[in-house]
Amino acid sequence: MLYLDHAATSPLRPEVRDAMLPYLTGAFGNPSSHHTVGEAAARALDDARARVATVLGFRSGDVIFTGGGTEANNLAVKGIVLAALDRGRRHVIVSSIEHESVLAPADYLHRFHGVEVTRLPVDRAGRVAVDDLRAALRDDTALVSVDHANNEIGTVQDIAALHAVTSATGVPLHVDAVQSAGWLPLRDLGADAVTVAGHKIGAPQGIGVLAVRGRVPVEPLLHGGGQERGRRSGTENVAGAIALATALELAASEQQEVHARVGEATARFIAGVLSSVPGAALTGDPHSRLPGCASFTFAGVNGETVLLELERRGVVSSSGSACAADSGEPSHVLLACGVDPDLAQTAVRFTFGREPLPTEVPGRLAAAVAEAVRAAAGV
């Protein structure tokens, strides 16, 4: 079985498992407890926080541990905008291809707090134009949220150029880096808030981070004991924090080599599919994209049928975001890129992991895709 759905989740790395295990067994204390067991847990949590901050280019006190990427995105969008309401800022800007965990909180703010939401358009490659962002900014804009790399089509945004526009007007820029973490450098993004999810980089599910610079006020969504400097109440997941810090460090140390190796294999796979499957089209930016992401539309066949045929051939992939897999609707990302709704229903996404693959795998995989598409078409 070849697992090619790493954008949905990745396996737990052995080094990460070993690092977190002591905090699931002997060092199990509550970091808020004032005794030796709790204080040991608190020291481990502080260490994990500092390590995450170093990789992301933030201060240690800027790091907020959450229950995952969705919670971190909700805290960024709702928390920053709610904190800005008393300053008369009632406008938020998001791109039209954001993950649902950004779009839905923006819609919530509109429905329950009267916040105006602007959805930035993208071109056919999924790119946000700097001029569109500049034109959308207003005196009452509280936040701009744009993903670093899209989870469905892999397009990488020019965050530095977008941040140059937002910083000139003093508007915070939140960047969802859930997909780019481990693949692209994050330390010099320059964003005011960054989201990371542990299970995309070899840590377990259920741990995430929102790093937000201290000058940006955040209204907490969870109230209670005041953990995480009052920004996210609830007993901290110490083992998860250690796991995320370890996974981030490992990915950062390997990034250059993995990016080159996986990018080359993915390019060979893409070329093989486009040359052997009639009607196949690559979605997203063909150049500025995540190295391990290849998403196609296959005109004339149903994407879900292709997925079933691929699994019969030992290949596990997806039609797009796992969070929207049960909706039955065409991908909002592809629709925003101008893809016809019927064609969008044919999409299949392949996302590679960081592990080395035999050199023949991209070619064999492209052949399996060609077979699966022919079978789905009844040929």
Describe the structure.
Helix content is 40%, strand content 14%. Strand 5, helix 6 and strand 6 (173-176) form a beta-alpha-beta unit. The model has no long low-confidence stretch (mean pLDDT 96). The chain has 379 residues and is an alpha/beta fold. It is globular. The strands form 3 sheets. It has a 7-stranded mixed beta sheet with strand order 2-8-7-6-5-3-4, with helices on both faces. The chain has a 3-stranded antiparallel beta sheet with strand order 9-10-12. It has a two-stranded parallel sheet with strand order 1-11. The chain starts with a strand and ends with a helix.
Provide the fold topology.
Blueprint: E1 2-3, H1 14-20, H2 36-56, E2 63-66, H3 69-84, E3 91-95, H4 100-113, E4 116-120, H5 130-136, E5 141-147, H6 159-169, E6 173-176, E7 193-197, E8 208-212, H7 238-276, E9 280-282, E10 293-298, H8 303-312, E11 315-316, H9 332-336, H10 341-344, E12 348-351, H11 361-376
Parallel strand pairs: 1-11, 3-4, 3-5, 5-6, 6-7
Antiparallel strand pairs: 2-8, 7-8, 9-10, 10-12
Helix pairs in contact: 1-7, 2-7, 3-4, 7-11, 8-11
